[in-house]
Amino acid sequence: MHPQRDLKDISKKIGRLPTLPGVAMKILQAMGRDIPNIMEISEIISLDAPLSAKVLKMVNSPFYGLANKITSVHQAMVYLGLNTVKNLALSFSVIKTFEHKNKSSFDYVQFSKDSLVGAIAAKLLAEKTSRQHGENAFFLGLLQNIGMPIMAESMPDHYKEVIMETKSNAASLHEVESQLLGLNHMEVGEYVTHAWGLPAKLTVPIGVHHTPRRLTSGSYDILSLIKTLHLSSLYINLFNGSDPKANYAEIENCIRDYELNSVINNSVTVKEITEGIKSLFPIFEIKIDEKKYIDIIETARYESDKLSSDLLNQLHNQSECLDQLKQQVCLDGMTQLYNHKRFLEILHQEISRAIRYKTPLCVIIADVDHFKSVNDFFGHQAGDHALKCVSSQLKKLLRDSDYIARYGGEEFGIILPMTTLKEAIQTAERLRKSIESEKVVYRERSISVTMSFGIASLENNRQIDVEGFIKMADEALYDAKNTGRNKCCHYKLQNPEKTQASTVLVIDDEEVVLVTVTKMLGRLGYAVIAAKSGREAANFLHQKEIKIDLVIMDMVMPDTSPDQILKVIYNFNLECKVVLTSGYNLSSGGNEDLLNKTNGFLQKPYQFAELSRIVKATLNN
Fold first, then answer.
1. What is the CA radius of gyration of the chain?
2. What is the tens place of the pLDDT at every residue in 23-41?
3. Domains along the chain?
4. Alpha-carbon distance 18 to 251, whole Å?
5. d(C-alpha 113, C-alpha 443), whole Å
6. H or E element: which one contains 530?
7. 217-271: per-residue pLDDT in tens?
8. Is the distance from CB of 502 to CB of 552 less than 8 angstroms?
9. CB of 332 within 8 A of CB of 339?
10. Contact 326/434 with Cβ under 8 angstroms?
């Protein structure tokens, strides 16, 4: 029997830790700064030509489903975010660390396959269960079993015995490791990744991913990632195991235990992982076993059908009750159209679908003209009757595949899937003419009703959120109202070339504001640089050869006055635009000189729509 290994003495027992390639260490060092610099990390990756080529090949693969081809690492960071690209670069580095090791009985080729399956599964699961963790899940899924090759390297004879014992007794690898060696690959993985400088929210899940119930308390982020990682490890077993039927059933039970049935369809997830394997294995230079994965999909389909059949009778009676409840929750009481909440939910789903499958999508916000006059002149009951008639008329003219909701008051929201902007304009015009021609009759009195329509299109399948999409339609509706009413206007993207080329420097000492604004602007397609102090911004302006088009700057900085920062900005670039922000109301006076030197002001806290409007207006001015 081998001596028990003390977890505190891991370093001594496993010997020298494996070192990551130099580029990976540089990335981790840059990410360790209080506010990571997107330009610095972009340059680190770009200088390693083979690495940057693989990163670009991966972000342009079907796995990420971007509408436009990405041609640079910096552009990839703008579209996918700093963390996503950083994690992809680190993933290639980790695989490279072990790709040529074949001297022991440990199967490094299979380890690479399993690691990538785990990464693909973890990302897909995170996107279904907790979207904010998707950027870390891929990297975490890849690293989850990193302790295995490290143990195989440091104690080859002992680990060979572990592998033989595991196969002969069909036992769990981590249990045999603990029994024979006194520690397991989860503990080693947590220790090593911590030594590499990774944060606790990534290292802790690695330490318990086969035994998630060991950790009963912790932050929501960590507990959520542990569940994701545990499930991804079960999918590794499914794609590498000898008993796919049993593995599939184990995943079903786990999904049920975690109460994730409503968001994870096991059979669909298996197919999605297989598609991910087809896209990513060649990029990582890993051979695909087509027949094996086809068999796994067939097993998943069979088991899914079997489970569905067993549950069908049980669910039949419940479904009618649920349908009735859903109707009550989702419908507007007066018009029987979808309500505001359900409209937003559907729009979120349709945006995701349109981006994923690169299909057109349009949204319309429509408003009854002069509705207050109808209420004032004919009475509120007549106004309610008019809204019901308008609702019925609009619904009658739309396709079964379209969605219509009462957005609020006399406003209606319409979602047009698989519809181009030209087709949406034609639809809106048809609706407008129909409403105009139909008289509303209430108690033998005729009421003339007209409507204005604002149309927005998900042009080029741009990454945009629900709020931003509705804002576009609202702006178009505003144009229709301001130019005569009873008309249709569509949102016109102003200077898209300039938006894509514009670089924005955000200066704010509040980290929450800095991170939030950076993400907001990134979603709008701008290249964003973050600085948490005036000194950091000044150093950046002096050292980096890059044209900054706009600076968004908090007026109250602990280390520098606004005038000092403005002086540096204008010395650097006289054409640079500056927008000031502050939590204080500046209308009281005393700030006229400062405001006159800049191009705009935003009162904190401000909304996404306000930020979008002032940035767009300032850059296009």
1. 29
2. 888 887 777 666 667 788 8
3. 7-304 (1.10.3210.10), 340-490 (3.30.70.270), 496-620 (3.40.50.2300)
4. 33
5. 73
6. strand 527-531
7. 667 778 888 999 999 999 998 888 767 888 888 888 898 888 888 888 888 888 8
8. no
9. yes
10. no
